[in-house]
Protein backbone atom coordinates (compact mmCIF):
# COMPACT_ATOMS: atom_id res chain seq x y z
CA UNK A 1 0.00 0.00 0.00
CA UNK A 2 1.47 3.35 -0.98
CA UNK A 3 0.91 6.51 1.09
CA UNK A 4 -0.94 8.13 -1.80
CA UNK A 5 -3.28 5.23 -2.50
CA UNK A 6 -6.91 6.29 -2.85
CA UNK A 7 -9.74 5.40 -0.52
CA UNK A 8 -12.47 3.60 -2.46
CA UNK A 9 -16.06 4.34 -1.44
CA UNK A 10 -18.90 2.41 -3.05
CA UNK A 11 -22.18 4.31 -2.86
CA UNK A 12 -25.12 1.93 -3.17
CA UNK A 13 -27.83 2.55 -5.73
CA UNK A 14 -30.29 2.00 -2.86
CA UNK A 15 -29.15 5.11 -1.07
CA UNK A 16 -27.18 7.36 -3.45
CA UNK A 17 -30.04 9.90 -3.65
CA UNK A 18 -30.68 9.94 0.08
CA UNK A 19 -27.34 10.96 1.58
CA UNK A 20 -27.72 14.13 3.72
CA UNK A 21 -25.62 17.28 3.26
CA UNK A 22 -23.52 16.36 6.31
CA UNK A 23 -22.51 13.11 4.62
CA UNK A 24 -21.24 15.02 1.58
CA UNK A 25 -19.49 17.59 3.82
CA UNK A 26 -17.64 14.75 5.51
CA UNK A 27 -16.72 13.06 2.21
CA UNK A 28 -15.43 16.35 0.75
CA UNK A 29 -13.33 17.02 3.88
CA UNK A 30 -11.79 13.56 3.48
CA UNK A 31 -11.16 14.10 -0.25
CA UNK A 32 -9.49 17.46 0.34
CA UNK A 33 -6.55 15.69 1.97
CA UNK A 34 -6.53 12.26 0.35
CA UNK A 35 -7.25 10.75 -3.09
CA UNK A 36 -10.78 9.34 -3.48
CA UNK A 37 -12.51 6.98 -5.91
CA UNK A 38 -16.30 6.77 -5.67
CA UNK A 39 -17.87 3.71 -7.34
CA UNK A 40 -21.66 3.94 -7.61
CA UNK A 41 -24.55 1.51 -8.07
CA UNK A 42 -27.83 2.24 -9.88
CA UNK A 43 -30.50 -0.23 -8.73
CA UNK A 44 -32.96 2.40 -7.47
CA UNK A 45 -32.53 5.06 -10.20
CA UNK A 46 -32.97 2.33 -12.83
CA UNK A 47 -36.25 1.22 -11.21
CA UNK A 48 -37.36 4.86 -11.20
CA UNK A 49 -36.54 5.18 -14.92
CA UNK A 50 -38.69 2.20 -15.96
CA UNK A 51 -41.04 0.16 -13.74
CA UNK A 52 -40.09 -3.03 -15.64
CA UNK A 53 -36.77 -3.01 -13.74
CA UNK A 54 -38.69 -3.71 -10.54
CA UNK A 55 -40.23 -6.93 -11.95
CA UNK A 56 -38.87 -10.26 -10.65
CA UNK A 57 -38.10 -11.18 -14.30
CA UNK A 58 -35.47 -8.38 -14.41
CA UNK A 59 -33.28 -10.47 -12.08
CA UNK A 60 -31.55 -13.75 -12.96
CA UNK A 61 -29.53 -16.13 -10.78
CA UNK A 62 -26.38 -17.96 -11.75
CA UNK A 63 -25.73 -21.60 -10.79
CA UNK A 64 -24.22 -20.47 -7.46
CA UNK A 65 -27.38 -18.53 -6.56
CA UNK A 66 -25.86 -15.09 -7.14
CA UNK A 67 -28.32 -12.46 -8.34
CA UNK A 68 -27.62 -10.63 -11.56
CA UNK A 69 -29.57 -8.20 -13.69
CA UNK A 70 -30.80 -9.54 -17.05
CA UNK A 71 -28.75 -7.16 -19.17
CA UNK A 72 -29.40 -6.49 -22.88
CA UNK A 73 -27.93 -3.65 -25.01
CA UNK A 74 -31.06 -1.60 -24.16
CA UNK A 75 -30.41 -2.13 -20.43
CA UNK A 76 -26.77 -1.01 -20.86
CA UNK A 77 -28.08 2.16 -22.56
CA UNK A 78 -30.46 2.81 -19.62
CA UNK A 79 -27.65 2.18 -17.10
CA UNK A 80 -25.51 4.75 -18.92
CA UNK A 81 -28.36 7.27 -18.92
CA UNK A 82 -29.02 7.04 -15.17
CA UNK A 83 -25.28 6.89 -14.40
CA UNK A 84 -24.57 10.10 -16.32
CA UNK A 85 -27.30 11.85 -14.33
CA UNK A 86 -26.12 10.41 -11.02
CA UNK A 87 -22.46 11.24 -11.71
CA UNK A 88 -23.49 14.80 -12.63
CA UNK A 89 -25.38 15.15 -9.32
CA UNK A 90 -22.48 13.69 -7.32
CA UNK A 91 -20.08 15.96 -9.20
CA UNK A 92 -22.15 19.05 -8.38
CA UNK A 93 -22.30 18.09 -4.69
CA UNK A 94 -18.51 17.69 -4.59
CA UNK A 95 -17.74 20.73 -6.78
CA UNK A 96 -19.85 22.84 -4.39
CA UNK A 97 -17.52 21.70 -1.61
CA UNK A 98 -14.28 22.46 -3.47
CA UNK A 99 -13.60 18.93 -4.80
CA UNK A 100 -13.21 18.43 -8.55
CA UNK A 101 -14.40 15.27 -10.26
CA UNK A 102 -14.03 13.12 -13.37
CA UNK A 103 -16.76 10.68 -14.43
CA UNK A 104 -15.30 7.40 -15.70
CA UNK A 105 -17.15 4.48 -17.30
CA UNK A 106 -15.26 1.33 -16.30
CA UNK A 107 -15.75 0.14 -19.88
CA UNK A 108 -13.48 2.96 -21.14
CA UNK A 109 -10.38 0.87 -20.37
CA UNK A 110 -10.46 0.75 -16.56
CA UNK A 111 -12.35 -2.55 -16.05
CA UNK A 112 -12.13 -5.75 -18.14
CA UNK A 113 -14.47 -8.74 -17.78
CA UNK A 114 -14.19 -12.39 -18.78
CA UNK A 115 -16.75 -14.35 -20.78
CA UNK A 116 -20.12 -14.42 -19.04
CA UNK A 117 -22.20 -17.39 -17.91
CA UNK A 118 -24.59 -18.72 -20.57
CA UNK A 119 -27.08 -20.59 -18.37
CA UNK A 120 -29.22 -18.65 -15.93
CA UNK A 121 -32.10 -19.33 -13.59
CA UNK A 122 -35.07 -17.16 -14.51
CA UNK A 123 -37.52 -17.91 -11.73
CA UNK A 124 -37.68 -21.71 -11.70
CA UNK A 125 -36.48 -22.18 -15.29
CA UNK A 126 -32.90 -22.69 -16.38
CA UNK A 127 -32.49 -20.81 -19.66
CA UNK A 128 -29.65 -20.12 -22.09
CA UNK A 129 -29.24 -16.36 -22.46
CA UNK A 130 -26.72 -13.96 -23.93
CA UNK A 131 -26.71 -11.97 -20.68
CA UNK A 132 -24.38 -8.98 -20.93
CA UNK A 133 -22.78 -9.57 -17.51
CA UNK A 134 -19.18 -10.60 -17.04
CA UNK A 135 -16.90 -11.50 -14.13
CA UNK A 136 -14.25 -8.83 -13.59
CA UNK A 137 -10.80 -10.01 -14.64
CA UNK A 138 -8.62 -6.88 -14.62
CA UNK A 139 -8.62 -3.30 -13.41
CA UNK A 140 -6.03 -1.06 -15.10
CA UNK A 141 -5.26 1.97 -12.89
CA UNK A 142 -3.24 3.57 -15.72
CA UNK A 143 -6.47 4.04 -17.69
CA UNK A 144 -7.37 7.06 -15.53
CA UNK A 145 -5.44 10.12 -14.38
CA UNK A 146 -3.67 9.31 -11.09
CA UNK A 147 -5.99 9.91 -8.09
CA UNK A 148 -4.96 13.00 -6.12
CA UNK A 149 -6.16 15.00 -3.11
CA UNK A 150 -8.89 17.52 -3.96
CA UNK A 151 -10.27 15.37 -6.77
CA UNK A 152 -12.65 12.42 -7.04
CA UNK A 153 -12.98 9.83 -9.80
CA UNK A 154 -16.66 8.84 -10.01
CA UNK A 155 -16.69 5.33 -11.51
CA UNK A 156 -19.65 3.64 -13.22
CA UNK A 157 -18.78 -0.09 -12.95
CA UNK A 158 -19.42 -1.28 -16.49
CA UNK A 159 -16.67 -3.34 -18.17
CA UNK A 160 -15.47 -4.53 -21.59
CA UNK A 161 -15.72 -8.28 -22.26
CA UNK A 162 -13.25 -10.29 -24.42
CA UNK A 163 -15.42 -9.61 -27.50
CA UNK A 164 -15.14 -5.86 -26.88
CA UNK A 165 -18.77 -5.58 -25.74
CA UNK A 166 -19.83 -3.32 -22.91
CA UNK A 167 -21.10 -5.50 -20.04
CA UNK A 168 -22.65 -5.07 -16.62
CA UNK A 169 -20.83 -6.10 -13.42
CA UNK A 170 -21.77 -6.21 -9.75
CA UNK A 171 -20.99 -2.78 -8.30
CA UNK A 172 -19.76 -4.02 -4.88
CA UNK A 173 -17.42 -6.58 -6.44
CA UNK A 174 -16.21 -4.00 -8.98
CA UNK A 175 -15.41 -1.62 -6.11
CA UNK A 176 -13.44 -4.44 -4.44
CA UNK A 177 -11.45 -5.04 -7.64
CA UNK A 178 -10.78 -1.30 -8.00
CA UNK A 179 -9.64 -1.04 -4.37
CA UNK A 180 -7.29 -4.00 -4.82
CA UNK A 181 -5.81 -2.71 -8.07
CA UNK A 182 -5.18 0.80 -6.69
CA UNK A 183 -3.58 -0.54 -3.48
CA UNK A 184 -6.30 1.11 -1.38
CA UNK A 185 -5.94 0.94 2.40
CA UNK A 186 -9.70 0.61 2.86
CA UNK A 187 -12.96 0.00 1.04
CA UNK A 188 -16.15 1.56 2.40
CA UNK A 189 -19.48 0.07 1.23
CA UNK A 190 -22.14 2.69 1.92
CA UNK A 191 -25.65 1.27 1.82
CA UNK A 192 -29.15 1.65 3.30
CA UNK A 193 -28.52 -0.35 6.50
CA UNK A 194 -26.37 0.67 9.48
CA UNK A 195 -24.50 -2.64 9.80
CA UNK A 196 -24.37 -6.28 8.94
CA UNK A 197 -26.90 -8.18 11.06
CA UNK A 198 -26.37 -11.79 12.09
CA UNK A 199 -29.40 -13.41 13.69
CA UNK A 200 -30.80 -9.88 14.08
CA UNK A 201 -27.77 -8.64 16.04
CA UNK A 202 -25.58 -5.82 14.69
CA UNK A 203 -21.97 -6.85 14.08
CA UNK A 204 -19.18 -4.39 14.97
CA UNK A 205 -16.27 -6.43 13.66
CA UNK A 206 -15.94 -9.75 11.87
CA UNK A 207 -13.06 -11.75 10.40
CA UNK A 208 -13.10 -12.77 6.75
CA UNK A 209 -13.57 -16.46 7.57
CA UNK A 210 -16.59 -15.90 9.81
CA UNK A 211 -18.07 -13.50 7.24
CA UNK A 212 -17.70 -16.12 4.49
CA UNK A 213 -19.37 -18.76 6.70
CA UNK A 214 -22.31 -16.45 7.38
CA UNK A 215 -22.53 -15.42 3.72
CA UNK A 216 -23.12 -19.00 2.68
CA UNK A 217 -25.61 -19.87 5.40
CA UNK A 218 -27.54 -16.68 6.18
CA UNK A 219 -27.00 -13.61 4.04
CA UNK A 220 -29.42 -12.77 1.27
CA UNK A 221 -29.65 -10.43 -1.71
CA UNK A 222 -27.50 -7.34 -1.60
CA UNK A 223 -25.70 -8.26 1.63
CA UNK A 224 -24.59 -11.61 0.23
CA UNK A 225 -22.87 -9.75 -2.63
CA UNK A 226 -21.31 -7.26 -0.22
CA UNK A 227 -19.80 -10.05 1.88
CA UNK A 228 -18.43 -11.70 -1.25
CA UNK A 229 -17.01 -8.36 -2.39
CA UNK A 230 -15.49 -7.67 1.05
CA UNK A 231 -13.72 -11.05 1.00
CA UNK A 232 -12.36 -10.35 -2.48
CA UNK A 233 -11.05 -6.91 -1.42
CA UNK A 234 -9.28 -8.38 1.64
CA UNK A 235 -7.80 -11.15 -0.53
CA UNK A 236 -6.45 -8.46 -2.85
CA UNK A 237 -4.58 -6.73 -0.03
CA UNK A 238 -7.09 -4.11 1.19
CA UNK A 239 -6.61 -3.89 4.98
CA UNK A 240 -10.23 -3.39 5.95
CA UNK A 241 -13.73 -3.12 4.52
CA UNK A 242 -16.44 -1.19 6.35
CA UNK A 243 -20.17 -1.60 5.65
CA UNK A 244 -22.71 0.97 6.88
CA UNK A 245 -24.72 4.10 6.16
CA UNK A 246 -22.87 6.75 8.20
CA UNK A 247 -20.39 9.45 7.16
CA UNK A 248 -17.22 7.87 5.76
CA UNK A 249 -14.94 9.28 8.51
CA UNK A 250 -17.19 7.70 11.18
CA UNK A 251 -17.08 4.36 9.38
CA UNK A 252 -13.29 4.51 8.92
CA UNK A 253 -12.86 5.35 12.62
CA UNK A 254 -14.96 2.20 13.35
CA UNK A 255 -17.37 4.17 15.57
CA UNK A 256 -20.32 2.80 13.57
CA UNK A 257 -20.93 0.19 10.88
CA UNK A 258 -19.40 -3.28 10.49
CA UNK A 259 -15.65 -3.70 9.95
CA UNK A 260 -14.38 -6.75 8.08
CA UNK A 261 -10.72 -7.71 8.38
CA UNK A 262 -8.44 -10.54 7.38
CA UNK A 263 -8.28 -12.71 10.43
CA UNK A 264 -6.51 -15.85 11.49
CA UNK A 265 -9.33 -16.64 13.91
CA UNK A 266 -12.13 -17.95 11.79
CA UNK A 267 -14.78 -17.60 14.46
CA UNK A 268 -14.04 -13.96 15.26
CA UNK A 269 -17.19 -11.81 15.61
CA UNK A 270 -17.75 -8.88 17.98
CA UNK A 271 -21.15 -7.31 18.44
CA UNK A 272 -22.05 -3.66 18.43
CA UNK A 273 -23.86 -2.52 21.55
CA UNK A 274 -26.41 0.08 20.58
CA UNK A 275 -27.01 3.09 22.79
CA UNK A 276 -30.56 4.40 22.74
CA UNK A 277 -31.24 7.95 23.83
N1 LIG B 1 -27.74 -10.03 7.23
C1 LIG B 1 -28.04 -8.83 6.71
N2 LIG B 1 -27.68 -7.70 7.37
C2 LIG B 1 -27.97 -6.49 6.85
N3 LIG B 1 -28.64 -6.30 5.66
C3 LIG B 1 -29.01 -7.40 4.97
C4 LIG B 1 -28.74 -8.71 5.46
N4 LIG B 1 -29.22 -9.61 4.55
C5 LIG B 1 -29.78 -8.91 3.56
N5 LIG B 1 -29.66 -7.57 3.77
C6 LIG B 1 -30.17 -6.55 2.85
O1 LIG B 1 -29.09 -5.99 2.10
C7 LIG B 1 -29.54 -4.70 1.67
C8 LIG B 1 -28.36 -3.88 1.17
O2 LIG B 1 -27.96 -4.37 -0.10
P1 LIG B 1 -28.45 -3.66 -1.44
O3 LIG B 1 -29.94 -3.57 -1.48
O4 LIG B 1 -27.80 -4.35 -2.59
O5 LIG B 1 -27.90 -2.20 -1.27
P2 LIG B 1 -27.00 -1.24 -2.17
O6 LIG B 1 -27.86 -0.75 -3.29
O7 LIG B 1 -26.64 -0.18 -1.20
O8 LIG B 1 -25.83 -2.02 -2.67
C9 LIG B 1 -30.23 -4.13 2.88
O9 LIG B 1 -31.21 -3.17 2.54
C10 LIG B 1 -30.86 -5.37 3.54
O10 LIG B 1 -32.23 -5.46 3.24
C1 LIG C 1 -24.83 -7.61 -12.78
C2 LIG C 1 -25.67 -6.71 -11.93
O1 LIG C 1 -26.71 -7.12 -11.46
N1 LIG C 1 -25.21 -5.48 -11.71
C3 LIG C 1 -25.85 -4.52 -10.89
C4 LIG C 1 -24.92 -3.33 -10.78
C5 LIG C 1 -25.46 -2.16 -10.00
C6 LIG C 1 -25.47 -2.42 -8.52
O2 LIG C 1 -24.88 -3.34 -8.01
O3 LIG C 1 -26.16 -1.47 -7.83
P1 LIG C 1 -26.49 -1.38 -6.28
O4 LIG C 1 -25.41 -0.61 -5.65
O5 LIG C 1 -27.75 -0.62 -6.24
O6 LIG C 1 -26.65 -2.77 -5.68
C7 LIG C 1 -27.20 -4.07 -11.47
O7 LIG C 1 -27.32 -3.86 -12.67
O8 LIG C 1 -28.12 -3.85 -10.66
Task: Name the features.
single chain, 277 residues, alpha/beta, Carbamate kinase, ten-stranded mixed sheet, two-stranded antiparallel ribbon, 18 strands, binds adenosine-5'-diphosphate, binds N-acetyl-L-glutamyl 5-phosphate, nucleotide-binding, transferase, ATP binding, ATP-binding, amino-acid biosynthesis
Task: Summarize this structure briefly.
This protein has 277 residues and is an alpha/beta fold.
Q: Uncertain segments of ≥5 residues (pLDDT<50)?
A: none
pLDDT average, as an integer? 94
Radius of gyration: 18 Å
> How would a textbook summarize the main sheet?
10 strands, mixed
- Work out the helix count: 7
Shape: globular
- Tell me the strand percentage band: 25-35%
**What's the total number of strands?**
18
Please name the CATH topology.
Carbamate kinase
Q: Count structural domains.
A: 1
Terminal residue distance: 40 Å
Amino acid sequence: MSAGAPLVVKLGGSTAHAMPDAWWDDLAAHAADRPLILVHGWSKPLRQLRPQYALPSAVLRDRYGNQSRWTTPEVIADIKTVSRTLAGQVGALLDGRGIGHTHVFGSDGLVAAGAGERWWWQGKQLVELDNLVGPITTVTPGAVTPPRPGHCHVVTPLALDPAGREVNTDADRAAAAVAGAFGSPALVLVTDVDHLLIDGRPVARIGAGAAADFRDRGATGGMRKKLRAAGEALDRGVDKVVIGSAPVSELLAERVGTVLTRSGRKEQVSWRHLEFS
